[in-house]
Write a structure and sequence with these properties.
The model has no long low-confidence stretch (mean pLDDT about 85). The chain is mainly beta and about 80 residues long. It is built from one helix and five strands. The protein has a five-stranded antiparallel beta sheet, with helices on one face. About 15% of the residues lie in helices and about 55% in strands. The protein has one domain: 2-Layer Sandwich (TATA-Binding Protein). A hairpin with a 2-residue loop joins strand 2 and strand 3.
C-alpha cells in the first residue's frame, strides 16, 4: 500500500507504534534507506508478531509531502507433495 502524506516520519512512526505495540507487535528495526545511492533521508521501520511482519517505508522528504509504503509479510511453511 502506498500513500503520500505531509506528516513527518516521527509522527507516522508514533502512529504505528501506538496502533501495533498494544496489540503485541514488536518494533524490531529502524534502518536508513537510500535511493539511487543517494541519502534522501528515507527510513524503513519493521514490526513483527510471530511469523507476521509489517514494514513501513519512508522515501524521504520531497517538497511538501512524503511518500510512504506499507508492506505486510508472513512466513509460509513449505508444503511437501507426495506422489
Amino acid at each position: 500500500m502506498y500513500y503520500n502524506s505531509t506528516a513527518q516520519f516521527d509522527d507516522v512512526r508514533e502512529f504505528y507504534d501506538s496502533a501495533l505495540l498494544v496489540k503485541g507487535w514488536k518494533e524490531v528495526s529502524l534502518q536508513p534507506t537510500s535511493r539511487w545511492l543517494q541519502n534522501t533521508g528515507g527510513k524503513e521501520l519493521t514490526f513483527t508478531k510471530g511469523d507476521l511482519k509489517i514494514v513501513v517505508n519512508y522515501s524521504g522528504q520531497r517538497d511538501q509531502s512524503s511518500a510512504y509504503a506499507v508492506t505486510f509479510l508472513w512466513s509460509v511453511s513449505p508444503v511437501s507433495v507426495s506422489h
